[in-house]
Amino acid sequence: MSTLTITALKDILRSAAGEDDGVDLDAEILDTPFTELGYDSLALLETAARIAREYGVTLSDDDVDQIDTPRELLDRVNAAARA
Amino acid sequence: MTGAVVTGIGVVAPTGIGTEEYWRATTAGASAIGPITRFDPAPYPVRLAGEVPGFVPEEHVPSRLLPQTDHGTRLSLAAAAEALSRSGLTAAEAPDFGIGIATASTMGGFEFGQRELEHLWQLGGQHVSAYQSFAWFYAVNTGQISIRHGLRGPGATVVADQAGGLDALGVARRQIRKGTPAVVTGGVDSALCPLGLAGQLSTGDLSGAHDPERAYLPFTREARGHVPAEGGAILVVEDAEFARDRGAPVLGEIAGYAATFDPDPRDPAADGLPRAARQAIADAGLEPGDVDVVFADAAGRAGADRREAAAITALFGAGGIPVTAPKTGTGRLYAGAGGLDTAAALLSLRDQSIPPTVHVDATDPAQEIDLVVGRARPAALSTALVLARGRGGFNAALVVRAPLPGKPVHTKE
Fold first, then answer.
1. Per-residue pLDDT tens for A28-76?
2. Which residue in B1, B35, B213, B214 has the fewest CB atoms around it within 10 Å?
3. How are beta strands B231-239 and B4-13 bridged, if at all?
4. Secondary structure tally for chain A: helices H, strands E
């Protein structure tokens, strides 16, 4: 299973939940909370569903609740993919 | 008790995106009824519709909202943005819970729902969008508009088919009477996808004609049903004093409103429309003689048209008042019709001109109404009655009155 990169995650976020007008996703966002990026819990559920389809890693709703930043999401997905 | 005044209109209609574009086309008697282009209608008995042409979602809806919105919700967001912009109202201008919202919906986000159902059956549940949880839902326009514009006052969604558009305005007026300074209201519907059309076909009320000029002919001997359409209007309604204090443009007042329900659909004499019309006029503190023009529901079915014509002549006398149905140029807009007809009525009062009923050459002689056909008719207008009926026995009537002399009047762009 391939590794989920921040670039791929940005593409998934844009396609799953759009991009807030006041937010620059191309900036350094690894440690910016999803809430500051304009993504609410439903946007993250949709993102998680796409990751599950494309990367074969299923995050539970509880997992999604506990993830605050893109870095945490990448770490969780890639750790699960290696396991 | 202070009045409820309209301070902004936003329109997305088959005949125009934007209030003035719609109004120019409507007064010119333009028609947007044509073959369905959104999908191939060949397998269906109905091939015509009034589609909103050239709507580019990216121009009206933030990117963030595109993946989570149905086409109809995007249309409603565009209309709400225009209405608020024209009224000059923003959340910052009102107390924290001072702006409410009440919209009408007939079908919800069918196109979005159809796509996700296709994903479910073709690809599996993992492929259904998380946004399906609300994107298809009747209340979604109310929700998305309120979130986008920070409207934190009382929220409502009315579902009463075509009557719902007027009922939403009635709800807005009630919220204002209870102390909410302003309410964003009206309705926008869109279900021009195979699933939506299938749902509408089940009513048996749609015209199967293939000639756009002859498909929707209310009040004529050729009436064979209606053409479905999408779009509608969103209005900003405000407490008159609140609007005056902030110097808002006033297009007119919601002077009267009433809703009735037909007691028994098998009994034509039980038609609730005349009662709704009478009660709305009385609610405005007026007599029928004070009304200058009627915007008809115009079902386009022989029996329903005859009953509406009879209701009008019972109130105003045979040929006693000009009657028009500009929705003959758009098709029937379901929940979108009440707001759009009210917008047209207010613009008629502004311009002292009644837009024509299009495609209709001559009414059924048995229906003794003075239908405005051919071209717009200049007239001295201060008060208009708007009628709407919804499938299932819903009737609604609304009276709008021009601003009183000396009060600020909305200026033309």
1. 999 999 999 999 999 999 999 999 999 999 999 899 999 999 999 999 9
2. B1
3. antiparallel
4. 4, 0
Best residue of A35, A42, A55 to probe chain B, by most B CBs closer than 10 Å: A42
State how far the Cα of B234 lies from the Cα of B80, in Å rounded to an integer: 5
Question: Which uninterrupted H or E stretch holds B103?
Answer: strand B99-104
Asked if B63 lies within 8 A of A52 by C-beta distance, the reply is no
Minimum CA–CA partner of B69 in chain A: A17
Interface test with A, best of B58, B59, B61, B64 (most A CBs within 10 A): B64
Whether A72 is covered by a domain: the verdict is yes
In a domain, A45, yes or no: yes
The number of C-alpha atoms within 13 Å of B388 and in the hemisphere containing its C-beta is: 33
State whether residue B254 is helix, strand or coil.
Answer: strand
Beta pairing class for B155-158 and B99-104: parallel
Q: What is the CATH number of the domain that holds A42?
A: 1.10.1200.10
Q: How many CB atoms lie within 10 A of CB B148?
A: 16
A1: in domain: no
Q: Which residue has the tokens 């924290």?
A: B96
3 state DSSP class of B401? strand
* pLDDT at residue A2 greater than cutoff 90: no
For chain B (413 residues), the mean pLDDT of every run of 10, in chain order, is 90 98 98 97 96 97 94 98 98 96 96 97 94 96 97 97 97 98 98 96 95 97 96 98 97 98 77 95 98 98 94 96 98 98 98 97 87 97 97 95 66 41
Range of the domain at A77: 6-82
Comparing alpha-carbon positions, the chain A residue that sits nearest to B65 is: A18
pTM of the model: 0.95
pLDDT of residue B268: 63
Q: Which two tokens stand for residue B233?
A: 């209007």
Domains present along chain B, CATH in parentheses: 4-252 (3.40.47.10), 257-401 (3.40.47.10)
ipTM of the complex, rounded to two decimals = 0.89
What's the CA gap between A34 and B211, in Å, rounded? 53
Tell me what pLDDT residue B253 has: 97
Count of structural domains, chain A: 1
Q: Do A19 and B64 touch (CB under 8 A)?
A: yes
Nearest CB among A15, A19, A46 relative to B130 is that of A46
CA A33/CA B328 separation, integer angstroms: 52
The kind and range of the H/E element at B233 are strand B231-239
